[in-house]
């Protein structure tokens, strides 16, 4: 067995060259049963390029955990032999990544203009933020809270009827560049708010009594890169002195147990924590805005994918938050609300104990700033499509998520602190 591994290793270690075609690349799912099988997956990751989809780093692997990972086409045979020889059960979730990538674009709305039922590139989203503001001046305003590493403005939409002493909910999307369903939801939420205000009693009350800050894409540079160069890119696009690799994981870059469990100090890692907390211009802009508005922001919602999870602090420690009982009951009720539409099942709970330890996350940071109602959504699906959710599933995904978000927002309104 180990002779075979060394052989594979010798054939596989090469300088990383960005291969922009994903033709023949495969996504595997395995469930290692014991420490030895975990060790084999660790070794595999050390000798060839393995892109972990779930969990997002090899360091998080443990027995009985569902593990999804992507490998290059020419490594398929080697990986398959290795898994068979180790007695590890596996399945191929995606047989040809390029075909799955092409199949994402199955929306009927193939227009050059903005559509809520297709994935929009950054230029289209940026123009949409201006349009939606211009069309709804009494409900929406737009500001710039900072700029990205590559110098792009970070647009924030503020939604709500103007009124005195209003409390607010902050929601962001697009932390990880390849999670395209996430920005799609932020756009959908804004659409629903402006279209149903005055018609839907819950939404009308929410916008009358609360403000919503919506950041449609946090990691704009990374998002653009997934459209132009590498669909599977995750991190920011920052260049750090002395680092050979580009980018930081923005959701490992907050000052919440920074760079401890579930984050990497290695700049080439997909979970690189950055050289310091808030080293990324994007995370600093977000954190600065929240700090400036701490007296009014009462809930923080961050939208990711995939896995169908509704999580709350903590991620960086197994310690439960002081508000555990309340947060757990909100997550339970919101998950039920979400499932009521399309029977989509969500798992909910405190993040570290529900999935794995991960430090430096924005939700933990917000909670530690005193924002009690802090939640992370991991949207559809559970791995059939992973990060390549087809456009035909945007509408049902956003419809059901909206129910959960409205539930949480209404709860927050009724339990202001």
From TrEMBL:
One BP term from GO: proteolysis
InterPro entries: CARBOXYPEPT_ZN_1, CARBOXYPEPT_ZN_2, CPB_M14_CPD, M14A-like_propep, M14A_act_pep, Peptidase_M14
Subcellular location: Secreted; Zymogen granule lumen
Annotated EC: 3.4.17.2
Principal cellular location given in the protein's record: secreted
Reactions listed under catalytic activity: Preferential release of a C-terminal lysine or arginine amino acid
Stored Pfam families: Peptidase_M14 (PF00246), Propep_M14 (PF02244)
Cofactors, names only: Zn(2+)
Gene Ontology terms, MF aspect: metallocarboxypeptidase activity; zinc ion binding
Ranges in a coiled coil: none
Active site: 378 (proton donor/acceptor)
CC annotations in GO: cytoplasmic vesicle; extracellular space
Keywords: Carboxypeptidase, Cytoplasmic vesicle, Disulfide bond, Hydrolase, Metal-binding, Metalloprotease, Protease, Secreted, Signal, Zinc, Zymogen
Annotated ranges, domain Peptidase M14: 118-412
Domain of life: Eukaryota
Secretion signal, residue range per the UniProt entry: 1-15
SUPFAM superfamilies according to UniProt: Protease propeptides/inhibitors (SSF54897), Zn-dependent exopeptidases (SSF53187)
Family, per entry: Belongs to the peptidase M14 family.
Name the record gives this protein: Carboxypeptidase B
């Amino acid at each position: 067995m180990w002779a075979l591994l060394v052989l594979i290793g010798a054939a596989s270690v090469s300088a990383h060259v960005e291969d922009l075609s994903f033709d023949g690349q495969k996504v595997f799912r395995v469930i290692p049963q014991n420490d030895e099988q975990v060790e084999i997956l660790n070794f595999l990751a050390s000798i060839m390029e393995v892109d972990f989809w779930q969990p997002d780093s090899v360091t998080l692997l443990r027995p009985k955990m569902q593990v999804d990972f992507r490998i290059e086409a020419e490594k398929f045979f080697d990986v398959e032999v290795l898994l068979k020889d180790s007695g590890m059960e596996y399945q191929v979730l995606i047989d040809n990544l390029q075909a799955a990538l092409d199949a994402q674009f199955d929306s009927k709305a193939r227009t050059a203009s903005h559509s809520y039922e297709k994935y929009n590139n950054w230029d289209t989203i940026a123009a949409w933020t201006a349009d939606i503001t211009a069309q709804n001046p009494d409900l929406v305003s737009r500001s710039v809270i900072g700029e990205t590493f590559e110098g792009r403005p970070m647009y924030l939409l503020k939604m709500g009827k103007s009124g005195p002493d209003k409390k607010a909910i902050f929601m962001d999307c697009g932390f990880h560049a390849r999670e395209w369903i996430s920005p799609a939801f932020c756009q959908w939420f804004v659409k629903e708010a402006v279209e149903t205000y005055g018609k839907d009693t819950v939404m009308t009350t929410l916008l009358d009594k609360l403000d919503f800050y919506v950041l449609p894409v946090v990691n704009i540079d990374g998002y653009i890169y997934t459209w132009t160069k590498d669909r599977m890119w995750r991190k920011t696009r920052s260049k750090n002195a002395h680092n050979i690799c580009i980018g930081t994981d923005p959701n490992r870059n907050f000052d919440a147990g920074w760079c401890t469990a579930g984050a990497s100090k290695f700049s080439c890692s997909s979970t690189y924590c950055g050289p310091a907390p808030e080293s990324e211009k994007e995370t600093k802009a977000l954190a600065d805005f929240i700090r400036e508005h701490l007296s009014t922001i009462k809930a923080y919602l961050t939208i990711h994918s995939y896995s169908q999870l509704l999580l709350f602090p903590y991620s960086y420690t197994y310690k439960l938050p002081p508000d555990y009982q309340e947060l757990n009951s909100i997550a339970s009720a919101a998950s039920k609300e979400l499932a009521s539409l399309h029977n989509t099942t969500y798992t909910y709970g405190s993040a570290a104990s529900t999935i794995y330890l991960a430090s430096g996350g924005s939700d933990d940071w917000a909670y530690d700033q005193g924002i009690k109602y802090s939640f992370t959504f991991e949207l559809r699906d559970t791995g059939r499509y992973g990060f390549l959710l087809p456009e035909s599933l945007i509408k049902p995904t956003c419809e059901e998520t909206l129910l959960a978000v409205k539930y949480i927002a209404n709860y927050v309104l009724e339990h202001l602190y």
